[in-house]
Amino acid sequence: MTNFARSERLTLAALLREVGPDAPTLCDGWSTRDLAVHIVIRDRYPSAMAGEASEVTAKIPFLNKRAEQRRRELGELDWKQLVGMVAEGPGMLSPVGWGPGEILANTVEFYVHVEDVRRARRGWTRRNILPELEQQLWSALPTMVRLPPWRPETAVKFIALGIGEFSFGKTDVKSKVVSGKPSEIVLYALGRQEQAQVEVRSEKI
To answer: Which positions, given as ranges, span the membrane (predicted)?
Structure first.
């Protein structure tokens, strides 16, 4: 089975080298340097990552201070070195460096961040996504939508044409149906609604 967590990571690293440290991304207010710093913190510094991982932990002074210090230190690195750390990935002791969680978290993480860089550029076109990757993204989606920042006030039904469907959230007349390829539905679910190529309609589920 293809390790898409690894291949998407390397795709992102190559893209970062190509566009440089000051290119825009779909992550609000982040340049590509900010994105690279975030990834290295996520890979290598769990305690610093905790300082930015949620609204609760971000308010803990010790964790917030550590996160700020790491961001500052990594942000001052040479771009080539920083991107090299992105490509290298986490160590075996990192929570995102091993086991089923590595496949789930990193496949989605790096697919989405590749698109964060690609789709922030003018004239972007959709990549051809392998069916196996589409299936992995779809398999990860039920777990991912139960984590922040995805907290819908009403129900959402996701329909991956030819693959499957599932619903999430509280049903009412304002419920939404989102249909498209899994790779596009994932982008929609993780806050990239304006760039995701999906069909959205209101429907009571």
So the answer is: none
Between the two ends of the chain, the Cα-to-Cα distance in Å is: 36
The model's pTM: 0.87
Q: Can you say whether the dihedral through the CA atoms of 107, 109, 112, 115 is positive or negative? A: negative
Buried b (16+ CB within 10 A) or exposed e, 39-60: bbbbbbbeebbbbbbeeeeeee
CA–CA dist 48, 53 (Å, integer): 9
Contact 17, 78 (CB under 8 A): no
Closest CA to 96 of 83, 78, 110: 110
- The mean pLDDT of 36-40, rounded to a whole number, is 94
Residue 84 CB-density burial (10 A; 0-12 exposed, 13-18 middle, 19+ buried): middle
pLDDT of 146 over the 90 cut: no
Residue 50 CA to residue 94 CA, distance in Å, equals 13
List the one residue out of 191, 182, 10 whose CA is nearest residue 116: 191
Map out the domains of the chain as residue ranges.
4-118, 131-202
pLDDT above 60 (res 53)? no
Question: Do 137 and 114 meet the contact criterion of CB atoms below 8 Å apart?
Answer: no
Contacts of residue 176, Cβ cutoff 8 Å, sequence gap at least 6 = 152, 154, 155, 156, 157, 200, 201, 202, 203
